[in-house]
Amino acid sequence: MLSTVTKSRSVATCVRGFASSAIAYKPKDAQQEAKRKLRREQAVKQRNKQAPESHPLYMTVPQAMRYLRAAEVGQPAKKTTVSILMTVLPERGSKPLAGSVYFPKPIKESHVMIFSLQDEKVKIAKELGATHVGGLDLIESISKGEIKLDKITHAFATPEIVKDLRAIARQIGPKGLMPAAKKGTVSEDIESLMQSSVGAYPFKQKEQHLSIPIGRCDFSDEEIIKNLKAASEAIYGLQPPGTRKPNLIGQTCLSSTLGPSLVINFKKT
């Protein structure tokens, strides 16, 4: 009996000793892991600080587009998407990049409808390429079903005609085309409304990456470059000179739906 008790005590002592020794090593392991993590982060940051021209997959935009178009042969050009994917390394306390970019060459076709009782505004809207423009005559045509609304992507109005739109609320409301001040689709400045809404693409950084579609394979090199420049100005414009903790915008790749990812100089596009 005594021998059994003695054995039990000795086993318990060994278990306690093993547990305490394991706990003693944990802080060292945690410190080593923290150092390894810091080294990995520094290595990633150093890679993303290097000039894109030094990367083996670097190409100018026209060169990259030749490869991307070749990769999309046999695909409908209008269904291909050319995008940029960049690495964004945030500093402690910095905010994720988020905003909108206004493309000179919109990626998706837009069909705009403008309601106004002002002849001058109607004229401006027509010059800017609105699909349907008018006042009470346009409202009446919609009410009678003479105008198809399936392809309309945006609808704007000047303030004086808003009350008259109630007559066609059932036709345009369910399609999300009812102009409203709260939605920012009612204004005297029709020109700004069209320019800021048509062709605008919202973007937001997710973790350490930011992806934005900037065109299609049927866009010319010049159109792709102009859209890239607009995206570059929008993203770098979020971090004005003198920002204490800017995000590090690192390697940027240009790719298509089926094509490879090719490194470009996004900042100097």
From TrEMBL:
Q: Where are the transmembrane segments?
A: none
**Cellular component terms (Gene Ontology):** mitochondrial large ribosomal subunit
Hey, which family's this protein in? Answer: Belongs to the universal ribosomal protein uL1 family.
Q: Which domain of life is it from?
A: Eukaryota
Write out the entry's keywords from A to Z: Ribonucleoprotein, Ribosomal protein
Q: What taxonomic lineage is listed for the species of origin?
A: Eukaryota, Fungi, Dikarya, Ascomycota, Saccharomycotina
Specify the protein name: Ribosomal protein
* Biological processes annotated in GO: translation
- Give the SUPFAM superfamilies listed for this entry: Ribosomal protein L1
Instruction: Write down the InterPro entries for this protein, in alphabetical order.
Output: Ribosomal_uL1, Ribosomal_uL1-like, Ribosomal_uL1/biogenesis, Ribosomal_uL1_3-a/b-sand
Signal peptide span: none
Which CDD domains does the UniProt entry name for this protein?
Answer: Ribosomal_L1 (cd00403)
Q: Supply one GO molecular-function term.
A: RNA binding
Q: Which Pfam families match?
A: Ribosomal_L1
Is Ribosomal protein found in the keyword set? yes
